[in-house]
Structures are given as C-alpha cells and as structure tokens.
Design goal:
Helix content: 55-70%
Structural class: mainly alpha
Number of strands: 0
Number of helices: 7
Order of helices and strands: HHHHHHH
Distance between the termini: 41 Å
Radius of gyration: 16 Å
Shape: globular
Largest sheet: none
Amino acid sequence: MTEQPVYSTLGFSDEEWGLLTGLPLAVLTAASAAESDGTRRTLAEGAAGLEAVSAGREGASPLVTLVAQEVVSRAGDPEAGEELPLISPEDPEAYTADVLGRATQAAALLRGKVDEGEAGAYGHWLVSIAEQVVTAAPSGGMLGIGGDLVTEPERRFRDALAKALQD
C-alpha cells in the first residue's frame, strides 16, 4: 500500500497542488521583474522573497504552512544560507500576466476547496511575498542612495496581485 501525499488528504489533485506550490516563487520572480534593478538589487529582492516564503512555514494557516514547507524544500532554506538562482524572465510583462492569471485560478480553486480563512491566509501570504520583494531594495538613485522604495510598476504588480487574490 502506498502512502497518499499530504495534499491529497486536503482534497487537492497533483495539478492543483502544483498551482498552489508554484505560485510563491512565481510571485517572487514577477515582483522582482516588475522593475529592472540590476544584479545586486535583484539578488536582495530574491533573498527577501525567499525569507517571506520561508516565514509561511511558521504561520497559523495549515495550508500556508504545508505549501511553504514544500516550496522551501525545493527552492532552498534561507535559514541554512541557501539562495535562489537569479531568474530574469525574457518577457517580464508576459510573465507577470501569467502569474496574475495563475493567482486568479488559485483564488477560485481555494474558494471551492477550503474555508474563507485558509483561502484568505494563502492570498495574504502571496501578497506579503510580493511586498517583501518590492521593498527589499530601492530602485533608481545613485550608488544605493535615493531612489524610490517602491516604484510605480512594482506597486501596480502588487496591487494587481492583491486584486487577483482578493486580499
């Protein structure tokens, strides 16, 4: 007899679980790609995003905890000094549109599968990942001085994500 994956006991198919576990890093990448920042800032954004993903392991939501545990097991644990590879989508606008579409799908999926609190916690967690990324490193300015903490493209992505997730 084979043991069922934890997510199937929660009522999720492989495809549905893939959507839920794929979104946190996709959100991180899309938030970082919203503004072209250069390598140093992009690395800082990735580190901040991975910290936010990792923090989900200690939340009150069992769903967020399970998703975060799986994502960290695949992507790396910042507490162990692991870092994400630098990922830059070739077409940031198309990538962002795809991520927002998947976020809308995830919100609809969760509305049908879990209670409102769990769905809300998942959405809020994803928006908090985007927030951590877009506030990790100011854009513009010279030699790291000045610039905008959150640029208009970053703000637009974060707000569109919150709307897609109804957070």
